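step: validate -> pass
step: tokenize input -> pass
step: predict -> running
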Amino acid sequence: HLGGITIPCKLDAVFQHGDRFEIVDWKTGAKPHSAADLEQKSIQLALYRWAYAQWRKLDPERVDAAFFYVAADRVVRPQHLPSVTDLAASLQKIRSRDERADTPGHPRAR
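step: predict -> pass
step: emit ->
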């Protein structure tokens, strides 16, 4: 649970390097086309990092994360991953947006 929300995480791979761990998420789509795109995609890695650290009872700072873009044969390691505080805030924004969308009369109402 993060910010009162249950988030399922399926990790593609975790490698141990000494006392550090690296999560690698394989991607079949295109690599990020801008810094903003990479920042948005990095939220997924930050969630994986947080979840893995919680599960293993590790300091999240010991867990690194990267994307492997299969078609480009390229590893992309974001320089910054959001903190757990930043993740919780982002999730609350998403949750609030989705709750507003469920309001009758809202253009995105279901």
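step: describe -> The CA atoms of residues 100 and 106 lie 7 Å apart.
step: cleanup -> pass
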